[in-house]
Amino acid sequence: MPSIPSNRSGRWAIVTLIVLAAATAGPAQTSPILKLKENNQLHANGDCTFQYEVQLPVAMYTTFKRNTPNTAVFIRKFVLSDQNVVLDGQTGEWVDADSTLKIRFNARGIARVTKGGAWEIPLIDSIDTELVAVAENTAILTQAAEISGLGLATNTIRVAMPAGTTDVKILKSPTRLTYHLPAPTAADGEAKVDIELEAKDQVMTSLAKALSNKAFGPLWTARSKFKNMGTVALHDYRIRFRIPEYAPTWSSWQGTPLVVAGQTVLDGYYPIFEMEKIGRLTGQTKAALEIQYQYKGPDGKLVEETETKELILLSRNQVYYTSLKSSECVDWADRDNLGAVVLSSFVTHEDPVIQQAAGRIAKWSGGANAAGSDDEAIKFMAAVYLFMAENIAYQTPPFGQNEAKFIQHVKYGRDVLKNKAGTCIDLAILYGSLCEAVGLEPVLYNIPGHTFPAVRLPDSKKVLAVEATLIGRGSFQDAVKTAEETNMKAMRAGNKSFTEVMVSKLHKAGAVPMDLPNVGEDPLEKWGIKMPNPLAVQNQNQNADVVKNDGNPAPRRAVDPIVGTWTAVFNANGLKVVGVAMFKEGGAFEGAWVFGDGVGRRVSSDTGSWSVNGNNLTIKGDNSGTVVRRFEAKGDEVKMELKEFGLVVTFTRKK
User: Fold this and answer.
1) For residue 396, what are the CA distances in angstroms to 176, 197, 234, 408, 570?
2) If I label 473, which of 88, 423, 509, 620 is the partner at 20 to 30 A Cα–Cα?
């Protein structure tokens, strides 16, 4: 289960373990469900050695150990929530006797000096952290958090501070631990630096908005590691980045007024792209990344340097799902660690094309507030499914590969409408976009080899999933049943790996789509997008009550009693009249009148659509126009008012 990436690094790791614990949820408990103890050594150069003891309930311990037996992998996956620190020296062991995990690692670049002269370590804003005491140069902190549906998790942290530490505090907005150290004494020595510039192998321009948001720490486009390799302190270090052709404005200066001997300073780059330029990219393209950095040596002289590195920008439709190399992935969570942000960035509920389509669907399906109740939500979901079935075909996905990753071509909702075809992920994106456009809360599920959409219903908060690839091949109820039976049951039972993409929450956090180009006036008309037959939605609404109390599909209701082929024979105005009418379940109509006077006969036929409102049957003929007939159905007989003949005629269903 993915968490929203955060730039407020999990320097003390209770948050990640809370997420893990929630994935193994059981009955809520009043005593702490897990207890963490930390004995950490903070060094004078801003590095920290972490030592954890995590005592777990037996079932949770067993699950963690079974899923991630390699403790080094466990540290990489779960201990730190972002990539803004450098780890080394990872060791650990599973202690079965106590259901305890013990791990140890070093983290470089944890702390740095701020403008006020204090050292600072970022903490996580959403976790209540208290400084309990500072004694004998050791700070004692506590953390506590409630795990939804489970209970309390607690953490006790002992931090051995560097010699000479004073004024240890927890400050808020943002939450951080601050302290002061004696200024390094001036001395002759060697000034030597090492700077390393890292850049992502490929940059997904589809994530342009998220890439510019520092709240998404793991999505840094580039990162610098500046290390003081000498024996004397350096001053006024700062660095900035840009991609001249596509993000030409220099980023703000980042840095620190003091870099002590042995210190590592890490800074990430979150580019603000020129949307129009990257929106025109139709394939992979090379781009130059530039950095400019400065610092003052012990002699006070300013040193300025620049460096350049090449990176690859992908087009707006090219994506990959993991930040790791294939050889580093050990499970589905690794292979899909970017999946949530990627999918969220393709759901375009604010796109005028999507809003126009959603508005037409809402009007066509009755015009009620889709987010007003579970019933109205399901009604709209069924209408979206029919709309897609009318206009779109399912297609198998194309994949490509460059030197580093598998690349998939993914469409925005508007692309699916324009091309009238989409893969499973494309259909899920369009479905989610249309639902969010009317205020519903879409959820997308990524599982190995497949993606499908769902909606969290507004009243019950149940998740109703839809197998969108059944469009044109099965009913809405079939799609709900297939999603439930094929995937959702196995996922709930823990028998199938998945990523749950809470689209609305990710949008609020900043994982939003890039700006798409204007497509002109009324694109749906230009692309030949049609609405289904009027009766299709009526029949679908009759079958849209697909959720029981347990969230499973309900039995199918009977179709409209008017569906079938009907015949009648009667006399009118001296003529023998034979009437034949075929009312199809999808809302299509075919009919004919045969008039005979004993000498010859005349045939009048028509096609069109039909719908029912109470006891009124509306037939829209392609040739004869619209006629409304009063009727009464009983079994295999229908009494129908024929105003043009001045009669009420009984029609019999043809078996």
Assistant:
1) 49, 39, 57, 12, 54
2) 620
